[in-house]
Design goal:
By secondary structure, this protein is mainly alpha-helical. Helix content is 65%, strand content 4%. Among the domains are: 188-355, no CATH class; 364-462, no CATH class; 504-698, 3-Layer(aba) Sandwich (Rossmann fold), CATH 3.40.50. The strands form 3 sheets. Strands 6-5-7-9-8 form a 5-stranded mixed beta sheet. A two-stranded antiparallel sheet has the order 1-2. Strands 3-4 form a two-stranded antiparallel ribbon. Strand 1 (73-74) and strand 2 form a beta hairpin. The longest helix is centred in the middle third of the chain and has 32 residues, at 465-496.
Length: 737
Amino acid sequence: MMLATWGLCAGLILSHHRAEREYITVLDQLGLRDAPVASTPLRQVIPARHADAQMWSQHALAAAEAGDLRLRFTHADNAPHGREMHWSSGLLWLLRAGATVQGILTGQTGPPALERSLLWLNAPLFLAVVVLLSAWTARRAGAAAGVLMALAMVGHNRFYEAFAPANVDHHGLVNAAALGLVLGLLFMGAGWWQPPTTPPPHLLPTGRAPARRAAIASGCCGAIGLWLSAASIVPFIAIAGLAGLAVTWWLGDRVRREGAVFDPTLWQWWGRVGAAGSLAFYLLEYAPSHFGWRLEVNHPWYALAWWGGAEFVARLAAWRLARSERPAAAVRFPLLALSGALLAVLVVPATMLLAGRAVFLVSDPFVGGLRHFVAEGRSLATAIGQSGFEAARLELLLCLLLVPGLVATWRGRGADRLVAGLLALMLAVFAIMWVIEVRWGRSASAVHLVFGLVLVARALSLVKPGQRRWLVIATAALLFAPAYQRIGVVRTENAAGRVAAGDLLQPLYRDIAAVLRASQPEGNIILLASPNASAGIGYFGRFQTLGTLFWENAAGLRAAAEIFSAHSDDEALARLRARRVTHLAFVATANFLGEYYRLLHPGADLAAARQSFGFRLASGQPAPRWLQPIPYRPPSDVPAADPRVRLFKVVPDQTEGEQLYHTALAQLAAGETAAAEKSLEAAATRAAPAGRAALLGSGGLACYDHGADAVALRLLRRSLALANDPAIAVTVSWILA
């Protein structure tokens, strides 16, 4: 049964990957301007929602070129200085493995091999996750449970999207680690087990040994999750411990009378294994010479806190249950042990409070304020206001699981109500967190999957044995439907030739990168743009940038904000020189100028921001003399909601006449022929007499190349009146012919 289910899951995963690859192929062919391939160093376009995979690819390539096995430093942003990196190197190794396999299969090497591997790497990775976790579920809870868990992982859109084609990012593995953590909590019975003689069906482990194995497995999964993303997994660990203590406090006496056994050593195993694993992964990442005090990522302090928290839960719960068996006076309160455990937990918040941004940069108001300006950091109310209820429909429906969960907790049979209560509490807390920040909706998918399994198990215990098969089949069909629909939607879009508007920015960024490199064929380019444009254009061109939305890049983001928010052109130039910026790019879609200003000036009126350097340039006002406009018109096959793009090269010693000439070329590219003629005439009046004819001739030829024949004729005739040039005379003849 499990082999057939895994085959079905593999078919669904591969079918969706194939459909998405067809979509990406269409997207990748846009913006090439009739060239067979892009001219940029990196070329593979992927859907914009998966753009973090490009940053991972950039880091993987840089590490490979430098011979580094672990992520340490990047020059991709915070130019020209670069910055430290604190990402897990595990995904780096997976990316390298994928590129190696791609090379073996196709003979590709270097960037092409890595970029092409992005399109298929998640398929075997996700299938491995499905097989491992569903096999564990089947072994622990039966084949039917394993089948449902496998289909649920593929069918749950929030869980699956982190493993979507080309979405090679750490979020998928983090969600898998969280699911393993929560599954282990279920299989360790939240610290409880039942004797093997307990009649089935039941969810609690039958004996101490299987419960201990589950606690160890849960701790290992949590440790892997901490290595991948402490910010995502720490809440799981904390909420699980508190929820486990709460349900034992609330239901412990009742389930003990029904034959269940509380074993505090299970929580201790969970905490000690998790803490040891966390410490081991910290050493793997940072030993022997990169230790530090960064609490945004995995750190020994989190290992200590996990150990202390688990000890606190185990000892306080044991004391609470002992009081119900013996007189209160005969049960000694474990003050010393609890105090030590609590101190271990408090070491993390105490360090953050005492050291502040030196150890936890998110406490900096500038960095903390970023969450208001990124999609996943929005509140639920803001997300609904911007995107409608469609963006929250799935999570709202899944929150309804709380209703049967609470019923199962209150009216459940025997000790199984404990795990139902544990998961109901966890889901309730994550629902509150989701209301505050919508990114927790994706994280809560791990709880959804395990809670759904518990509710199905509860339903099976209520129906007649002959009806259980049909209930499992109906549930499996319900889980299968979203996965099948997902494939159908992509195929329908492909057949219609539709491309999502947001994805069109990717070929646009690639085209801009090619134009910027053409404006400076040699030497390092340092680009100033919005965070998204910086990441996208910088990826394709392999340029250095300033502002990106990664917490380690607070200095670069602040520098970009200060330049764009400068009150004068002189201030902007001084800051640009300090950062050695060579080029600026303004893409009207999501230019981030207002957000930059509000990050520096919280609560400021947007009217004040409109007087800043960035707003003046983006709105089309004349650029300062030291900015040289770069001619640009978006490719015709990349329609954008707002096609305005302004590109500049920083040329501090540029004369006014030179700037006017380049302004005219940019206006021609934008189709503003009349404005271009005026700019060329103004440039000619400022040019030296000896160079005036050449300038008019060059401008006239540019007009001719852009199809502005009438303007070209006027300018070329003026050039011939000043100096005879046979080539210009021939062009005039061609126009008049």
